[in-house]
Design goal:
297 residues; mainly alpha; transmembrane
């Protein structure tokens, strides 16, 4: 019973982070299951089964709060579903650990760009200039993110969110809501692939149910938070989270000493905290400007 309660709590916080930042449910939940000695394929299958329900709840909540770009969702779900299904079917034969450092390096650099863009470049007026994601952009993004999601137990959000955040015109909250909503199709496709490869008997349904319950409770709360948090702050939160998680992946796969790892983590956290503070200050300045303009009019 304690284990099920633990899984429900993890599912709650994983979905709260995922729904607020556009990533982390799969990575957090899969990591937990692996610590209990579950095989990677079974852990990923269990998480994707839970995500079929949690992503549906999250998507519905984001749509309710107006956080979704429906055109982008439609262009991502087909290539994403194909990538997820293929990745699930061939998980046991894919050397994911060999590819992870290269993907993490790319994502870490994207995280740095996201921070810089939302702290120094982004203007609120950009949110009204959004252009639909083209087929040339959506097909490779969907295939790669879906494939990585199935093989790594989480990857749709960590890859799709930072890439979409670098696109001018899409607001931070719509990127997060769009990624979370489209993830439903990816979860369904990956689950079908796992069930074909592994069968139903490999899945612990009690663990899946616990993850589902926690995620369902957190989904509307996360969507509401995305609706009220300013774009600058969202960008700083997401950018810092991308840098931290991918730095961890790179450090875990390297021979860097423990004291050095601690120093790197401390540096990242200090920069992240400074970025959040700067984002809050910039948000306050823009709010005052808008209030001043309204008074003049």
């Amino acid at each position: 019973m304690k284990k099920l309660l633990t899984f429900a709590i993890i599912g709650f916080f994983a979905q709260l982070i995922d729904g607020s930042l556009g990533m982390a449910y799969g990575v957090t939940s899969t990591t937990l299951l692996l610590t209990f000695g579950i095989a990677p394929a079974v852990a990923s299958a269990s998480v994707h089964l839970a995500e079929v329900v949690t992503t549906a709840a999250s998507g519905a909540s984001h749509i309710r709060f107006g956080n979704v770009d429906k055109t982008t969702v439609l262009r991502l779900v087909i290539p994403g579903s194909i990538g997820a299904f293929v990745g699930a079917c061939f998980l046991s034969n894919i050397p994911g650990d060999m590819v992870k450092p290269y993907i993490s390096t790319f994502l870490l650099l994207l995280g740095v760009y996201v921070l810089i863009r939302f702290l120094f470049i982004f203007k609120v007026s950009e949110e009204r200039e959004a252009k639909p994601l083209s087929a040339k952009q959506s097909i490779p993004l969907g295939l790669i993110a879906g494939f990585a999601d199935a093989t790594g137990g989480g990857g749709w959000g960590p890859i799709a969110t930072p890439v979409l955040l670098t696109k001018r015109g899409l607001s931070a909250r719509k990127v997060i809501g769009t990624v979370d909503t489209s993830e439903f199709a990816i979860a369904v496709s990956a689950t079908l692939g796992f069930l074909i490869s592994l069968g139903w008997e490999q899945v612990n349904w009690m663990w899946v149910a616990a993850l589902m319950i926690g995620g369902i409770i957190a989904a509307p709360i996360a969507a509401w938070l995305v609706r009220i948090i300013p774009a600058h702050l969202l960008g700083a939160l997401v950018g810092g989270f991308i840098i931290l998680t991918n730095a961890r992946t790179l450090l875990m796969s390297s021979s860097v000493s423990t004291p050095m790892q601690t120093a790197i983590y401390a540096f990242i956290l200090i920069v992240w905290a400074a970025s959040i503070t700067l984002a809050l200050r910039r948000g306050q300045k823009e709010k005052k400007k808008r209030e001043t303009l309204q008074i003049k009019w």
